[in-house]
Write a structure and sequence with these properties.
This protein is mostly helical and about 230 residues long. The chain is built from seven helices and no strands. It is rod-shaped, with a radius of gyration of 38 Å.
């Protein structure tokens, strides 16, 4: 009946099967193409480090001038500083960059945490030493003026309160500790100031690297979209 031009239920079923098979063949071809691409990507997917990537941009800029990618780097005052930072800190990827930045912030907070008790102890020692000096200045003096007597009495009462029953005033020990802590405070402050500048620089580098990475991801997505258009 089909040969005579009369449509039959069996003929319609066969035609539907053929259409379905054709769609399956097209789908299999797409899958095969995708699998081939994934295999090639895996074989050639030795990802460069961030330092390699920045170096590639610098080289491209030197050879070809300002490309679309290199323009995002062109506004940096010193692109080499970015490269040196990544290489010096052995930063391989974005996670490593974030971790380095967090560790620098953590060191800042650690220094602040160390400075606080040092400052408090220095303030206490300064008071101890001042009152000790006043006490020994007027102790044994035969005749004190009213003002001197007030100072002496206040110093004696203060020292009595901090000595906890001890009779020997450790002025020498206090001064030695004060000198040690003053030096420690100076070292911590110096490190904090240096680290403050380093953190500021690292933050700028981090922002720049993220900007470049986002731009590259957008361009990569565009290339993939164009490649897979059929």
């Amino acid at each position: 009946m089909e040969k005579r031009g009369i449509r039959t239920e069996r003929g319609d079923l066969n035609r539907e099967i053929e259409v379905t098979n054709q769609k399956l063949r097209q789908l299999k071809a797409r899958i095969a193409k995708l699998q081939k691409w994934l295999k090639e990507e895996q074989e050639n997917n030795e990802l460069p480090t961030l330092a390699d990537y920045i170096q590639g941009i610098l080289s491209c800029r030197a050879q070809e001038g300002k490309s679309q990618v290199s323009q995002s780097l062109y506004n940096l005052k010193d692109a080499a500083k970015m490269l040196n930072f990544l290489q010096a800190n052995n930063i391989m990827d974005m996670a490593g960059l974030d971790e380095k930045f967090k560790s620098m912030i953590g060191e800042q907070l650690d220094i602040q945490g160390k400075l606080k008790p040092v400052e408090r102890r220095l303030a206490t020692l300064k008071k101890h030493i001042e009152q000790s000096d006043i006490y020994f200045k007027y102790k044994g003096k035969k005749k004190l003026t009213e003002a001197e007597q007030i100072l002496f009495t206040a110093a004696r009462d203060y020292l009595k309160g901090v000595m906890n029953g001890k009779t020997t005033i450790p002025t020498k020990a206090w001064k030695a500790e004060y000198a040690t802590l003053t030096a420690e405070r100076g070292t911590l402050n110096q490190r904090y100031l240096v680290l403050k500048g380093e953190v500021k620089e690292a933050e700028q580098i981090r922002k720049s690297v993220y900007s470049i990475s986002r731009q590259e991801q957008r361009e990569h997505a565009q290339r993939r979209t164009q490649k897979w258009k059929i």
